Amino acid sequence: MEGAARGRSDISTRVADGSDLPGVSEMLGAAFREDPLWSWTFSDPERLTVWWRFLIESALRYRFVFVTGDYAAASVWIPPGGSELTEREQERVEPLLQELAGERAPAVMELLERFDDGHPRDRPHYYLSLLGTHPEHRGRGLGMALLAENLASIDEQGMPAYLESSNPENIPRYERLGFERIGEFSTPDGRHTVAAMWREG
Questions:
Q1: In the chain, domain spans
Q2: Which 3 state secondary structure label does DSSP give 9?
Q3: What topology is assigned to 4-199 in CATH?
Q4: Secondary element (H or E) of residue 171
Q5: Is 38 helix (H, G, I), strand (E, B) or coil?
């Protein structure tokens, strides 16, 4: 997808590297500050940013993290055959969540297990781990333009894509780009629902 990130559309997109970790983390922290699911998970936005940084730092090893403009929008992908975290990083999840979520850590762990249980395993695919637009740049279509650009490259490879929508308002946007709902799961208290969505290549 690196070639597509260099100019297939009228937005300026590049592949992120390690130097972009702080900027991408802060931007996605701001983007998800009022997200119904992730504000339930981490009531303190700064702790959500720490969690995103943990995930993004791992994803950067694949060079499938894309940034639009000056951290206006970003997408974080895990390529076919990849994993969101390494085995060593998986061992850090529970202690990190205890630090970030305190007494709510068991509920957050259960939610993450539901993410994992709902993830398709039968076919190789690209996994959209994160997609967000900075609040100051919303309404310009940057996030969907970035996603469309990424998907064009994925289509060239004939590969499917998978994502989870944590905000029901975004589902129609994903559907317009060819994603279909294939399932759903909820938070342990049943207050919020996540849609699992698949797109054929």
A1: 4-199
A2: coil
A3: Aminopeptidase (3.40.630)
A4: helix 171-176
A5: helix
Structural tokens at position 32:
């998800």
**Which tokens go with 107?**
């509920």
What CA–CA distance (Å, rounded) separates 120 from 131? 19
In this structure, the strands spanning 193-199 and 73-78 are unpaired
pTM of the model: 0.93
pLDDT in tens, the chain (201 residues): 544 433 334 568 999 999 999 999 999 999 999 999 999 999 899 999 999 999 999 999 999 999 998 999 999 999 999 999 999 999 999 999 999 999 999 999 999 999 999 999 999 999 999 999 999 998 899 999 999 999 999 999 999 999 999 999 999 999 999 999 999 999 999 999 999 999 998
- 59, amino acid identity: A
Which are the contacts of 122, defined by CB distance < 8 A and separation ≥ 6?
A: none
In this structure, the chain runs to a length of 201
Residues 36 and 148: their CA atoms lie apart, in Å, by: 24
Looking only at the bridges linking them, the beta strands covering 73-78 and 65-68 are antiparallel
Inter-CA distances, 182 with 95, 119, 130, 153, 198, Å: 32, 10, 18, 23, 7
37's tokens: 């699911």
How far apart, in whole angstroms, are the C-alpha atoms of residue 107 and residue 89?
20
The position carrying tokens 């730092």 is 57
